[in-house]
Amino acid sequence: MSAKQTLVLPGYANSGPGHWQTRWEALDPTFVRVAMPDWERPVCDDWCDALDRAISASGPQPVRIAAHSLGCLTAVVWAARHHSDRAASKVAGALLVAVPDPHGAEFPADANGYEHVPMEPLPFPTIVVASSDDPYGGVAFAERCAKAWGSRFIDIGPRGHINAESGLGDWSEGLAWLASLER
């Protein structure tokens, strides 16, 4: 990995010890988790503000984003709000894994402000990774988002919510996709 900082954006309830995001942080000190104000009752505006502060605090170098689940929606909403400002230009790219459908039956009832998913091109390169049996967001929803956002789309087959239970370990394939997001 390069010296470029990677902001880790977990989803609802944070990412535990076996999650690929946590493992990536352990492997590389340039991976920094964005601390959210409340992991159990996410509010979109609050999470976007936390991401904005993390990007501002990252210094002059570009950053990458490694987002999972609700972290993906946070990154996309943040990007839509900052599409043309200097903050968005600091993001070299984002890996968006397991994008949840806020209108799906399994979407967390405690998550607020995520009802409207921006469906416009993002101001930085992105890769959307989906699983064919993700209970929080189907392949069709993820592919529709990827198309609207101008993202590369990757379907990794039946891997659940692409989390610790998916058995990905250090997920070297995901790390390679993230590294490919240099602009």
The dominant shape is: globular
Report the sheet-strand fraction: 15-25%
Radius of gyration: 15 Å
**C-alpha end-to-end distance:** 15 Å
Order of helices and strands: EHEHEHHEEHEH
Helix content: 25-40%
Figure out the total of helices.
6
The chain-level structural class is alpha/beta
Low-confidence stretches: none
Oligomeric category: single chain
Going across the biggest sheet, name each strand in turn.
2-1-3-4-5-6
Q: Give average pLDDT, whole number.
A: 95
- For the report, how would you describe the main beta sheet? 6 strands, parallel
Number of strands: 6
List the helices and strands and how they pair.
Elements: E1 5-9, H1 20-27, E2 31-33, H2 44-57, E3 63-68, H3 70-81, H4 86-89, E4 91-97, E5 126-130, H5 139-149, E6 152-155, H6 172-179
